[in-house]
Every structure is written in C-alpha cells, then in structure tokens.
Amino acid sequence: MKVLGHVAFLLLLGGIWCQNNRNAKASGRSTKKSAGSQGGDAGQTPSGVELTGSTGSTGSNRGTGGTGAAAEAGREAAGGARDDMRLHFLKNTQVTCNDGTAAGFYLKEFRGSRRWLLFLEGGWCCHSKETCDSRYQNIPRLMSSSGWPQTRRGSGILSPQAEENPHWHNANIVFLPYCSSDVWSGTGLAPTPPSRPRQGRDKERDRTANATEYTFMGSLIIREVIKDLIPKGIKQAKVVMLSGTSAGGTGVLLNIDRVAAQLEQLGAEAQVRGLVDSGWFLESKQQRSPNCPETVSCSPEDAIKIGLKLWSGVVPDRCRQLYKRGEEWQCFFGHKLYSTLTSPVFVVQWLFDEEQLRVENIYMGGQSLSEEQWQYIQNLGGEIKGSLRDVMGVFAPSCLSHTLITKSNWMNFQVKGTALPRALHCWDRSLEATRNNRTPAKGCPFHLMDACQSPQCNPTCPALVDKATQQELTLLQMLVAMGLDLQRLGLDPQRDADSLASMVSNGG
C-alpha cells in the first residue's frame, strides 16, 4: 500500500508538471545525448555515481518516470536497489536547471540516522552565450534534467557500503546533480540567446533553445533541496556535511555558511561542516586577452568575472565586504575566502591538481611539455601547500590527479601513513570534542600535507596514464615521452632505470 501511495503521488505530480509552461517547452530536449568534454571533468560520468535507473523525458521524470510498483519490485529482487539513491524533483518548480527543466536531487535514506551528507557535483561552468551553447550541445546533462536516470549508486564517501565508506555509509546521502553551470552561485535568470543556427540534426535543438532563456540557479537549488529535506528529517540532524568535488568543491565554500544559516532559521541544531575536494584553485599565471568570449581563451578569473553578471551570482557576505564592487570574483578562490567562513571546512587537495595544470595549458600525458611548464609544475606543490597552511583540516598528497572523495579506492591514498577516511574521522572527533568542551584525542591527525616536494613522490599516488596509449607510466617515463631531457633538468634517470629501459624496449 505504501508503494502504491507513492506511485499515486508521483502521478499527481506528473499531472501538475505537465501544466507548467516553462518545463513543457523544455521537454522537447529529452532526446539529447551527452558527448564531448568541456572544462576538465565536465564531460565525465557524474562524480561518484553509477547510473543505474531508466532515463526518459523530463515529463516522465516528473510523473511515473517509467517506473511503477512492478518495476520497483523487479529492481529490489535484482539486488542492490535498496542501496541506490533515488531521484526527487524540487517542489518549487520555479527553481530549475539551465534550460528550464526541473532541478532535483538523489536521496539514499538511512532510517534513524541524524547524520546527513549532501554532495555537490562538479563540472566547471559556462559564462557567455557561446560557452553556454557549446556546453548545451555537447554536455546537456550539465544543463538539463531531461536525461537523468531514476536512480544512482554512490561510490567513495557516497557509498552505503561499510567496507568502502567506513564512517559515512550509515548517513543519509544526498547527491545534487549539477545543471546550473554557475559554480553553484547563481540566483536568477539571464538572457543568453543561442548563437547562429546549426545545420542538419542540430537545427531542431537550436530552434527549441531559441524558445527559452538559460537560468542560473545553483545557489537557489541548494536552498530548495534543504527545504525539501525537512519532511525527511534534516531538521533533526546532528551533523550536516556539505561536500563537493571540483566546481562542486568551490560551491561548498560559496554556500556553506548560507546553508548553516538556513538550517538555524529552520530551528535545526545541526553542526554544518564543509568538505571541499579539488575545489581549492590558485589564480592563473598566464597573461590572457581581456576579450575572452570563448572558454579556451579565458582564465578562470575572467570566466568568473563575466559569469557572475550572467548568473546573478552571489558570494558569502563576509568575503564580499572585503572587496570593492566588481572584485567579488576573488571570493571563488579558497585561499581568499576561507578565513571569512564561520563553518568548519576540511580541504582535500592534490598538490599537483590536473585541473590547475590545465588552466596553464599543461596536460600531463599529452604530446609535449616545455621546461618552463615543468618548472611551473615543480613550484605548484609548494604554492598550494602555502595556501593551505592555516586550514584546520587538510589532506594534501603530492600527486598528479583530480578529485578523490568519490573514487571507489579512496581508502588507498595516504599522507604520512594516514588514509583520508581516517583523517576525516579524526577531524569529526576533534569537532565533537571542541563542541562539548573536551580535549581532542591525541594521535589522531587531520592536518596532513606531504613533506616531499616533487610530483608523484607519495608511493600511494594514482598511476599516471599516457593519454594516447592508455599505458601506465612513471613520472620520469612520462617526462621523457613528452620530450624533456632528464639530464638537462637535473633529474637522475638511474632512479628509474628499469622502467625507462622497459619503455625504450617497447618502442616508447
């Protein structure tokens, strides 16, 4: 009876939705398929989730979604379905994805738990009609909910399995898909008419896109998700962890205090905490053209400067007060924003983040690398370490990679003998002790940065992969493959002689 009741309720929602004019216009986009890439991890599978449910048009999502009691029972019988996160669309239909389709979230409830983990997906942003049109054409899932599946399965810190996620598996887990393209900062509507119509099969998509404006409501989506979680028990939460990777990690920094204030206004007594993974960026050192309508010619600073106006973007009040009008973009950088936050934040950051390198047009495993670029890489680790010095909770391995907390093997990476789940648990215990006026336990570290200075000097680093051959390489092998003279750089090939010999014998 309970399942049938849910089905009836969903059918009612579907009927209401079908009368919503904006979303009805957008439903014509349901045939789009994801392809290509933009902005680093933007073109990848959604962070930390496996797509497990059926997809369909937005109309079916808001109605039955192609599921009923029989389909539900079939998935349960197949095993594992009860561990999936299930799709919920926002009750407030005025808060939407970029294309006007319904925004929403995925939820895996753990009955009786007073701990909540909210996760913001990453995927860079768009900041002009050209970049937004390109993003909409190539990666529609980051701008529309029309193809979202009914269920998703989490990995890493989003996993409900104790073996993979020892300290957070028994929390209520909420995944917020990124469909606002605004680094989770937008609060409104901005007109961005598509560029000139394309030919052939793209013509219909462009015609449909002409019928609507893009909306940028990332910050509002977070607010509405919190509201919709009230009947699920978030007001009774003891701890609420707002987490995210890449642009989602930056979104945590931008929204953590706002979420804390919202929950306090609702009467909740939860301690709100932030977990930022690979969202702690430094400003670009490259000189760029001041006229940068296209992604490839824009620095992150310029993209955010332009984007903030387009998105009607907001930054935390205490940070905004530090900068004059027009300089609010500086609050998107953690090392400038962190000291103004009142909520505790833990930062997970590879010291040689691949997305930070891409900002400088450095692609490890690509075709070439100059000596100047290698020097930038060597200096980067020290600069990021310096920017993290005053952060309370840190896990910063000396590795070349991007994102960590949603990797299924996230327990394998260590800094000074401590794995990330252990460091987060120690941070958790320390916050609880401080909150209860107790002395934090000794021998439980949560400020961990590698002492070694060079990339990949941590033995637990993820393997490097040649982009062309998909072959795993050591750092020295990769530098040679990218055209660098190791002796000229002062590197000793004998440190890795066996691997180098193997590469040469294989024609590398």
Automatic annotation (TrEMBL):
The keyword Signal applies. Transmembrane segments: none annotated. Residues 199-208 have a biased composition (Basic and acidic residues). Residues 1-18 form the signal peptide. Pfam families: PAE (PF03283). Residues 52-61, 69-78 have a biased composition (Low complexity). Residues 26-78, 187-208 are annotated as: Disordered. This is Carboxylesterase notum2. It comes from Betta splendens. The lineage of its organism: Eukaryota, Metazoa, Chordata, Craniata, Vertebrata. The gene is notum2.
